[in-house]
Design goal:
Elements: E1 5-11, H1 15-26, E2 31-35, H2 58-70, E3 75-79, E4 82-87, E5 92-96, E6 101-109, H3 123-140
Parallel strand pairs: 1-2, 1-6, 2-3
Antiparallel strand pairs: 4-5, 5-6
Helix pairs in contact: 1-2
The structure holds flavin-adenine dinucleotide.
The site of flavin-adenine dinucleotide has 31 residues, from helix 1, strand 2 and helix 3.
């Protein structure tokens, strides 16, 4: 990557990170979105309650969202994992698992949440499907 001095680095390139990236990119900020491709909904078969995207798979929605943001030359993407961040006098230094370093004035954490599964045999494997059913039942009630 050529430009390693950014206005904003966003850790996490799923819905939150891409939304932030689009707003900042449109505002002519030089943005880098770093993502390692593990959104929390990756196990679910399809999404609900999301107007214009009802019934699509998470991968389909993520692809469309990324294509929207890719239209802005001010936004760059990096596939990788951030392992270290440090405050500097100018902002922050970010390090990835491959040892690459970037500098940025501002840092956005859009790395999502980690769901902690109960210790019930088979529960984790069914998580995406279970949540999908729960959404449907909530809508029917
Ligand atoms: C099973 C399931 C089903 C769901 N179904 C629906 C639904 O039907 N409708 C609906 O509206 N919502 C649904 N949701 C909720 C929706 O998926 C979340 O609200 C949404 O994904 C949150 O987006 P996010 O960008 O905050 O986090 P995430 O989507 O979790 O994205 C976080 C991103 O950050 C990246 N990341 C994390 N740490 C690092 C790091 N150190 N370096 C680089 N990258 C990193 C991850 O790889 C990931 O891509 C569902 C959630 C789950 C778990």
């Amino acid at each position: 990557m050529e430009n390693k001095n950014l206005d904003v680095i966003i850790i996490g390139g799923s819905y939150s990170g891409l939304s932030a990236g689009m707003s900042l990119g449109r505002s002519l900020r030089n943005v880098l979105i770093i993502d390692n491709g593990k959104p929390c909904n990756r196990q679910t078969p399809h999404s609900h309650n999301f107007v214009t995207h009802d019934g699509k798979t998470p991968a389909e929605i993520a692809k469309l969202a990324k294509e929207d943001v890719e239209k802005y030359d001010t936004v760059q993407f990096y596939n990788g994992t951030v392992v270290k961040t440090a405050k500097t006098t100018e902002g922050f230094e970010i390090q990835t698992s491959s040892g690459e370093k970037f500098n940025t004035k501002k840092l956005i954490l859009a790395s999502g949440v980690k769901d902690i599964m109960p210790d019930i045999p088979g529960f984790a494997e069914c998580w995406g499907f279970l949540l999908s059913i729960a959404h449907t039942v909530m809508v029917m009630k």
